[in-house]
Amino acid sequence: LSGETVATNLDEFVEFHIFYDGTGCAAEKGEAVPYLRARICQAISILSTDLERYLWHRDRFVLEVELGDSVEDEPHLFGHIRTGDGVEDEWFIVHLLQRLSRAL
Q1: Inter-residue contact 61 to 51 (CB < 8 Å)
Q2: For burial by CB atoms within 10 Å, which of 29, 41, 77, 80 has the most?
Q3: Which residues neighbour 59 within 8 Å (Cβ) at sequence distance 6 or greater?
Q4: How far apart are CA 45 and CA 32, in angstroms?
């Protein structure tokens, strides 16, 4: 890898999972992906002011749909961020998740 810094320490990553009460019902109807994509839009809308003002150390805030590897896994939203030395990013993610929890 030329010119890229590769994170070698797992402490440089933050992963988080967001579960919604209505996901199980949506999954039974085969609508988990549209339901969770709508939740991503809702979350970004709620957090947009904070997200626009924050300068990330490495990666930006991203939410993705996670369906799981087996039928038993509950579909949910998943996020991961390389933080490197940016401990502020870790605390800001905590702030964003708390804000999102309060808003929902």
Answers
A1: yes
A2: 77
A3: 81, 82, 83
A4: 20
Task: Find the Cα–Cα–Cα–Cα dihedral 19, 14, 64, 35, rounded to 10°.
Answer: 10
Place of tokens 């999102």: 100
Q: What is the per-residue pLDDT for 2?
A: 43
CA distances from 103 to 24, 28, 30, 42, 56 (A): 21, 26, 27, 10, 23
Question: Measured in whole angstroms, how far is the alpha carbon of residue 99 from the centre of its chain?
Answer: 13
Task: Return the residue matching tokens 């890229």.
Answer: 4
Q: In sequence order, what DSSP letters do the residues of 67-84 get, joined into one string? A: --SSTTSPPEEEEEEE-T
Residue 9 banded pLDDT, cuts 50, 70, 90: low
